[in-house]
C-alpha cells in the first residue's frame, strides 16, 4: 500500500501489485501436501494480474484480508499518509 501511494504521487506511470498467496502445495524445503494446489493458485493469480487488480488474494488469504475492515483501513491509510506528506513538505519550506 505504501509503495502504491508513493508511486501514485511521484511516478504515476508505474504500478505496484501486491500478491498475498495462501499456503500452497510445493516441494520447496520438503514436501508440503497442505495448502492450495500451486497450479490453481498461479493460474488464478495471473488471471487477476491480467485484469490489473492491484491486490491479489486467493482463497484462504482472501478470508484473512476481509477480517480487517478493508474499506475503513484504506481511508485511514490515505488520511495518515496525506497528513505526513503535507507535514514534511511544510518542513522543507
Q: What is the strand and helix layout of this fold?
A:
Layout: H1 2-10, E1 18-20, E2 24-25, E3 36-37, H2 38-50, E4 55-57, H3 60-66, H4 70-92
Parallel strand pairs: 1-4, 2-3
Task: Summarize, please.
The protein has 93 residues and is mainly α. The chain has helices at residues 2-10, 38-50, 60-66, 70-92, and strands at 18-20, 24-25, 36-37, 55-57.
Question: How would you sum up this structure, described in words?
Answer:
- By secondary structure, this protein is mostly helical.
- The chain has one domain.
- Helix content is 56%, strand content 11%.
- It has four helices and four strands.
- The protein has helices at 2-10, 38-50, 60-66, 70-92; strands spanning 18-20, 24-25, 36-37, 55-57.
- The longest helix is centred in the C-terminal third of the chain and has 23 residues, at 70-92.
- The relative contact order is 0.14.
- The mean pLDDT is 82.
Q: Characteristics of this structure?
A:
93 residues; mainly alpha; two-stranded parallel ribbon; elongated
- The tally of beta strands, per DSSP, is 4
Assign an overall shape: elongated
Within the largest sheet, what's the order of strands? 1-4
For this structure, the quaternary state is: single chain
